[in-house]
Every structure is written in C-alpha cells, then in structure tokens.
Amino acid sequence: IWGSHICRVRGLSSSSGPRVCIVGGGPAGFYTAQQLLKARQDAAVDIYERLPVPFGLVRFGVAPDHPEVKNVINTFTQTAQHERCSFHGNVNVGKDVTIDELRQAYHAVVLSYGAEGNRSMGIPGEDLPGVFSAKDFVGWYNGLPSNKELHPDLSFETAVILGQGNVALDVARILLAPVEMLKETDITQNALEALAGSKVRRVLIVGRRGPLQIACTIKELREMVNLPNTRADMLPADFEGIAEALKDLPRPRKRLTELMMKAVKEGGDDKAEKCWGLRFFRSPVEVLAGADEKRAAGIRLALNKLEGSGESVRAEVTGQLEDVDCGLIISSIGYKSIPIDPAVPFDPRRAIVPNEMGRVQDTAGLYCSGWVKRGPTGVIATTMNDSFDTARVLIQDMEAGKLDLSVNKPGAQAITALLQTRGVRMVLFSQWEKINAEEEKRGKSLGKAREKLLDVDEMLCRAK
Amino acid sequence: MAAFTAVRAAVSFTQRFVRVSRDCSVCPLYRLNVCTGAAVDGFSAPNRRLRTSIGVCQSADSSSPEEDQRVVNVVFIDRSGQRIPVKARVGDNALHLAHKHGIELEGACEASLACSTCHVYVSSEHYEKLPEPEEREDDMLDMAPMLQENSRLSCQIILTPELDGMELTLPKVTRNFYVDGHVPKPH
Q: Which GO terms describe its cellular component (chain A) (predicted)?
C-alpha cells in the first residue's frame, strides 16, 4: 500500500498541495519540517541551509563528548529523506536568494536560522589576542569552517570563562578533560592536538549573580565534579546563606545547588593536577593587557551584591574590584541572532525576529522557529517544542484560510532555476551523505567517530 | 484512507488501531529500514521482536495460558487528553511501545538519557512499583518542563506484570497548551 501511495504522490511538480520553505537546516528547521510533513499529507517542505552540511548546532555546538545528544541526527535524516522534503545546502538566504523571492515561490516561509552572532561583553580590551567568544571556541573544536583558523594559545596556566551556562561548562570541560576522553570523539584533529599540548591547568567560571541563579544544568555540573584528575576550587564565602534556602527550592534547582554545595565541601583530590572553580557575584569590567600591551594577561572583575528576590534577582555593583591573572579569556554570555534580509522585521534590542506565537509581525506568510524566534537559550528539546508550536500555528493558518493555498506555487523548481542562473552550487542531501561517508572514513583511520571536513570548498568537492 | 476504514471494521479487538499513525517516520520498522510495507496491509510484523498490538493478539490465539499472563495493558493519555489503550508485553520498553502506536513521544536521544523528550506522568499507584530512577535519569528529568512527583522518562520504563493498567500521561509541554501562562525555564 505504501508503495503505490508513494508512486501517486511522486508527481509533486503537478501537486497543488502547500509548499513551505524553511530557512536554516538546524534542529529548529528540521523539527518544524517534521511536524509539517506529519500534519499535512499534501505538504511539500524544502529546507535551505547556508553551509553544504546540515544539522546546525547539533553538529557544531554539541560537545564532542556528548555523542548521545547527537542521536537526533537520525531523526533529522529521516525527515530529509522523506519524499515530500528536500534539503538544499550551500544556499545563502539573503545573499544568493532573497526572502521576497522565497515568499513568491512558496505559500509560507519559516525562518529557523538561529543565532550566529555573539553578545559582546562591551568592555575595554575585549579585542586583545587571547580573548575569544565561546561561540568561536566551540566552533573551533567542533570544526565550524569559519573558526578553523582560530589557533587559540593554550600555553597559559589559567583560563577565565565569563558566563555559567551549559556552553561555559562545556568549554571548561573540554579544556580540562584528559585527552583519552576526547581522542575517539569527533573533535577536530587540530583541536585535539592543541589540547594535548595545552598548559591550561586552572579554569574559573565566572557569573554575575549567585549560586541560586547559575544557568547550567546538573548534568554538565556533575561532569565537572566527576572529571578525572581535577579538583573543585570554590569560595565558601560565595555560598553564605545557600544551605538555608535549599528546602524551599523546586527540585531541579535544589538538586543542582546540593551538588554545588557538595563540591564546596569535598573539593576533590588535592593531588589533582588540574582545578576548576565557580566564581560568583563578579562581572568583567576590563581585559588587562600584559606588559608588552600586545595580548590579554588578566581580567578585572567588579564585585556585585544581589538585590531583589526570586526570579528577578539583580546584580548591583558594590564598587569593589578584583584582578585575576590569566592568558585565556572566553566570553560565554550568549549567542545573538542577526538580521537576514531587509525585508524581514528585526528587533535589535532583543535580537530576534518580532513575532506572535511564531507568526512574524506584520508579514503574512512568514513564520519563525527556534532561537531566532525566542532568543538563544534552551536545549534541543526546548527548540523541538518551540518548532512544533510554530508548525501547528502554520497549519492552523492554512486551515483557517489565512494562507491562500488555491494559488499554485512553484516551490523548489523556481528557486533552483534562479540559483543556477546565479552560479550557486546547491548541495542535496544525497550529496551531504557523500561528505558524511568521507568524514566517517577519515575518522576511522584516526580511531575517531569522524574527522570533519573543515573547508567549504573541500565539502563541495566531495559532494560531487 | 479506504484501506484504513476496512481495517478499522475488521480489527475490532483493538478499537484504537485507527490511532496508529500513518507517519512512517515514527515507526521503528521504518527507522531500522525493515519496513516491507506489508505492515499496514496485513498488519503482520516482519520482525517478531517489534510486535504491534495486532501481532500480540495473533500470537495470543495459539498461545498457552502462561503467554496470556504476559500481556500488559497500558493506557497512554495524549496531550489533548485522549485515552489510547494498548496491549503490550512484559519486557516492552514504554517509549518504543508509544512509537509503535503513533503516540507523540519524541525520544530525541533514542533512549540514551541525553534528553527529556520522552517525559511522561505515571499513574500514582504504578509509579510506586517502578524501580528508582538512576541519577542520570533524575538529571534529565530536572530539565523537563512541568516536572511532577510522578514524572519519569518513558525510555526507562520496562513493563512488568504488576504494571498492568498503568496510565502514562503526556505532559502538555507547548505554549499552545499552557493554561496558566507558564513559560518553561530556558535551561
């Protein structure tokens, strides 16, 4: 039955079902596509992605030692291989094709292009060598082509990370993990070699507010506590009053805080070569240059006190300052979306596309899902639920007649033709699979899960 | 659709069979590339391990009394409150069971305790009968929106005879369903 069903639906060029375009081939894009395909048996969904390779932050953000989190790739692969779905890689929306051109070719367009920019600390010295955004550092060890020349200098003893979310903890863990833990993962070979020769022995993870406001989740904190050959170096003073507050906390916050308190009390093996510590109530105010004025040699932190209570606790300056010597500074205070096309409304203060439940403000037929819709927070599951929400809203609009489906739209046919005249080489999913096979093959010879191609031109070459 | 209507009439012992999703992407047979297409027409599972509710009942015809006792009845309650009773077997994994019956439990990390998308609420009298969650499961549960006392990750629930009658309710995790305006915490 499915065989004949497939044959009937194959003639998609003459089909009058809804055609939807999704901009961005990461989790938001794939989960939105998945839901649309499931909800409408007549819908055709095309995903456009700037890189030749799909999967976004699942490939470039999730830490190499978290391979189970990447299992979602199997689900995304099923979606991409669905007969009513097609993936188009190496297409830069906003440059190779405009949003207006996409809106003309499709009944609806969904923006799922995430957050490729970085929140800056806005402090003097931020541009000195030795200071990196976590986004770039993570991109470096995960093989993001634009970060392949990062060459972070790991010859200093102390690294300071600003921010205490899961990304900050990932960076700390990758900096201090024994090389044995990493050498069979899909971390890039040059990052692996740089880390093998690293002199970094002490990592401080700094947050503006207190232990009860820490943004990471317990899994990542537990991994730090259990990291071989490291000990925890916390300041008991930072934890004053915390024990008393425990009983009133909701379970997730309570368990997380209890684990931190345990790390404060037990500390870990004194003989451990490496150490990591959380530092609270501190905000960066200046990156200090070394004597030669040529690179970062330290960071000046302002000490805060907390005002307010509950969810709205704020950090306020006390006027006290503290200098920390360090040669590697990683700012992990948030990713940031950027505008993709002048035709799309953008809220520069919140750095998202303004929307109501995923419907882009004042723009019929345009939707958004994922970080570009809500802001750059949350794990894959959060983005999944959010993408399902947007898909549901889109389907509702189709069924309520808010999108005119009676008009035939050409979809991928028109866009592909346009891209060809512009000399853009699209990469189809079957071609990504060739890149994938090459990466796995290279990985095998190195004893790793995969060795990622770092160069877009090389990816395009392999895709032929 | 006609084929399904015919099936619905013929298959009366599981009134909920019509609930089986037509979406291949949630079916473990499709995912493992063992779908022959025959599963929908003849409702026979090509792989004896991946048993559909039809498969269970077919084998029950020729089964011994001991096999009958191995059936475990589970009720899924989906996000719109609809009850979906299914017949399962001792040893079945609750998440895989949900997938077989087209229940909307994602299981993003494929049962490796690296996400919370298979989060369910367990009926209280059966919750007590489950083995304690391991620390890793508790850590993942902490990330699930709308966590309750009776929350578990369904990928960690293996069916035993004493779980017969268990009800697994899907949390209303999306904004569309929030009645109290609750917004899930970012991390």
A: mitochondrion
Nearest in space to B95 (alpha carbons), one of B111, B83, B80: B111
Of A235, A223, A145, residue with least CA distance to A181: A223
User: Where is pLDDT greater, at B136 or B21?
Assistant: B136
Q: Give B10's pLDDT tier (boundaries 50, 70, 90).
A: very low
Q: Which domains, ranges and CATH numbers included, belong to chain A? A: 19-116+336-425 (3.40.50.720), 120-333 (3.50.50.60)
Render the burial of A310-319: b for 16+ CB within 10 Å, e for the rest. Answer: eeeeebeeee
Helix (H) or strand (E) holding A47: strand A44-48
> Is residue B127 within 8 Å of residue B150, measured between CB atoms?
yes
For B149, name the nearest residue in chain A, comparing CA atoms only: A251
B20 touches chain A (CB under 8 A): no
Question: Do the beta carbons of residue A392 and residue A35 sit within 8 Å?
Answer: yes
Can you give the pTM of this predicted structure? Answer: 0.85
A57-83 average pLDDT score? 97
Q: What is the ipTM of this complex?
A: 0.88
Helix ranges (H only) for B22-93 are 28-31, 38-41, 53-61, 65-69
Position B144 pLDDT exceeds 70: yes
- Partnered with residue A322 across adjacent β-strands are A301
Provide DSSP, A309-375: -GGG-EEEEEEEEEEEE-SEEEE-S-EE-----TTS--BTTTTB--EETTEETT-TTEEE-THHHH-
A208 appears as a binding residue in the annotation = yes
CB contact under 8 A, A255 and B138: yes
Q: State which residue of chain B sits closest to A371, comparing Cα positions.
A: B186
Q: How far does A458 lie from chain B, in Å, by closest CA?
A: 30
By CA distance, what is A39's nearest residue in B? B23
A242-301 tens-digit pLDDT: 999 999 999 999 999 999 999 999 877 788 999 999 999 999 999 999 999 899 999 999
Query: At a CB cut-off of 8 Å and minimum separation 6, what does B115 contact?
Result: A69, A72, A379, A380, A381, B108, B109, B140
Residue B10 burial class via C-beta count within 10 angstroms: exposed 0-12, middle 13-18, buried 19 and up: exposed
A2 is in an annotated binding site: no
Q: Do A217 and A256 form a contact (C-beta atoms < 8 A)?
A: yes
**Number of CB atoms found within 10 A of residue A236's CB:** 10
**Burial class (CB within 10 angstroms; exposed 0-12, middle 13-18, buried 19+) of A282:** buried
The pairing of beta strand A44-48 with beta strand A19-23:
parallel
